[in-house]
Design a protein that fits this description.
Length: 406
């Protein structure tokens, strides 16, 4: 029986941090694990008060409760205790202190068995800190969403006012077409916003899930990675709000703008559609400026992109390519910037090609289009940008040619 007792004692000492003190708290025994975690040798510890490893951050009240529990009540004390090592490091130890009684039921000594939980405590603190930062980021994002929503409402009111002004300038039919086109454009933009946010929301949810899974496994490096990924996703979502608010700004005046930037803006806004439909964009640009409102030209290109995506699906095209080119031409002794937009979506029936710019004409199912897109695109090019636009079948696709005066 004595052999089994020694075996148990040896097992405990090899796997735990063990110390003994007399009734006055003077250390009478420490095992190797105690020396290892504290940084002191046995010679430095034996005969010393246990306060040698006491951390100054721990309130005195904790030690009053400890001594009351083990000495006066003669009960076992359990707690997570913060200790200070010889080299000044803080360690956290799950501690169980038990009073040992002699045959007269008097306290003979105290034995303390501990195990190191420093990594778990630090991980918990780090997660709590990151949780506060994420909550702050989320609160900030909510405030920005509210602010941008307010601005969008104001912009929408201004847009309605501009529509009313246009109604006064045009015939009744043109008024109705303009209003319907604006509302269709707004619907398309809202759909683009949904596309822009759907994927990052999924990525954010996955990053938070992975962060939680890594926390369970104490994988600090992965936690930091997923935490930084989450902050980057939130920042990009916030930037998306700014991008679309700027695009909808109705107060943009006609001025010189970089043609390449307007085309890139339309591609950026439509990037989720391009990715979803697996469309390859080929670009051949030169630097040239034209006069007008840049986001109106961007709306024209967005409409072309959406029409091409529909045609790709309708004609079951596998290798989907759209080419966009900018160049300069001379026409009737005048210099023009020319934009060429070409897809390989099988083109349009020659019998209907000359009708595609007419109002309400559409090759789509009624539920998928109003027929106003190309009509309004032609109006923007001719009335707003003082240019011209033609459409023609070219090779295995449809080619739009836009000429804008320099």
């Amino acid at each position: 029986m004595k052999k089994n007792t020694n075996t148990y004692q040896q097992a405990i000492e090899n796997s735990n941090i063990v110390s003994k003190t007399d009734i006055n708290g003077i250390i009478t025994f420490v095992n190797d694990e105690f020396c290892k975690i504290s940084g002191y040798t046995k010679e430095e510890l034996l005969g010393k008060n246990h306060n040698i490893v006491r951390h100054p951050d721990v309130p005195k009240e904790h030690f009053h409760i400890l001594w009351e529990t083990i000495k006066q009540k003669r009960q076992t004390y359990k707690s997570t205790v913060k200790n200070l090592t010889k080299d000044g490091r803080s360690v956290y130890l799950n501690t169980t202190i038990t009073p040992i009684l002699d045959e007269f039921d008097d306290i003979e000594e105290f034995i303390a068995i501990r195990y190191d939980v420093t990594q778990e405590v630090e991980l918990k603190k780090d997660l709590e800190k990151k949780d506060k930062e994420l909550k702050l980021l989320n609160k900030t994002l909510e405030m920005r969403v509210q602010e941008q929503t307010k601005q969008l409402k104001e912009l929408n009111q201004n847009l309605e006012q501009r529509v009313e002004e246009e109604i006064e300038k045009n015939k009744q039919k043109q008024k109705i077409l303009f209003w319907q086109s604006r509302m269709a454009s707004l619907g398309q933009m809202l759909a683009n916003i949904a596309h822009q946010w759907r994927q990052p929301l999924t990525e954010l949810n996955l990053a938070l899930f992975n962060m939680k899974k890594s926390a369970v496994k104490n994988e600090m490096e992965d936690i930091s990675k997923y935490y930084n990924d989450s902050k980057e996703i939130i920042a990009n979502m916030s930037q998306t709000i700014d991008d679309f608010s700027n695009f909808f700004n109705p107060n943009k005046e006609k001025k010189k703008f970089d043609l390449k930037s307007a085309l890139e803006e339309s591609l950026n806004i439509s990037k989720k559609l391009i990715q979803k439909e697996n469309i390859i964009i080929k670009k051949d640009y030169i630097d040239v400026e034209v006069f007008g409102v840049s986001n109106e030209l961007s709306q024209v290109i967005i409409n072309f992109l959406q029409n091409s995506a529909h045609a790709f699906n309708k004609n079951n095209v596998k290798n989907r390519i759209i080419s966009i080119e900018i160049k300069k031409i001379i026409q009737d002794n005048h210099e023009f910037a020319q934009v060429l937009f070409l897809d390989n979506a099988m083109g349009v029936n020659e019998k209907t090609l000359d009708k595609i710019f007419e109002p309400y004409f559409t090759t789509k199912h009624q539920s998928n289009g109003t027929g106003l897109g190309l009509f309004m695109s032609k109006m923007i090019i001719e009335k707003s940008l003082n240019g011209n636009i033609i459409a023609q079948n070219f090779k295995n696709g449809l080619l739009f040619t836009i000429n804008l005066p320099l």
